[in-house]
Amino acid sequence: MTDLKFEDCLARLEQIVGRLESGNLPLEESLKIFEEGVGLARSCARYLEEAEKRIEVLAKDESGGLAARPFAWEPERDQ
């Protein structure tokens, strides 16, 4: 499961939720895929935590402090 990308984990998690919500699975299979889903949710949370840490490192100012500022996206200009 650790080799999966975030998008793959999320897609599989969505499949699991859909199957569980259908209510058509036997109890043992429901428990099995629920456990898989919990693992995937934890993996997704770890991915997001790591992404947040990377963003914080990139957002530090010259003094090393973090400042909340709005994201301003500027499209790349053709040169």
According to CATH, the fold-level topology of the domain at 6-59 is: Helix Hairpins
Strand content: under 5%
Total helical segments: 2
Largest sheet: none
The mean pLDDT is 84
CATH architecture of the domain at 6-59: Orthogonal Bundle
Question: Which radius of gyration do the C-alpha atoms yield?
Answer: 19 Å
Number of strands: 0
Q: What overall form do the CA principal axes indicate?
A: elongated
Structural class: mainly alpha
User: Could you give the distance between the termini?
Assistant: 42 Å
The CATH first-level class of the domain at 6-59 comes to Mainly Alpha
Give the helices and strands as they follow along the chain: HH
Contiguous runs where pLDDT drops below 50 for at least 5 residues: none
Question: Can you tell me about this structure?
Answer:
The chain has helices spanning 6-22, 27-59. It is elongated. The chain has a domain at 6-59: Helix Hairpins, CATH 1.10.287. The chain has 79 residues and is mainly α. The mean pLDDT is 84.
Summarize the structure.
By secondary structure, the chain is mainly alpha-helical.
Task: Outline the fold blueprint.
Layout: H1 6-22, H2 27-59
Helix pairs in contact: 1-2
Fill in the keyword field for this structure.
about 80 residues, mainly alpha, Helix Hairpins, about 65% helix
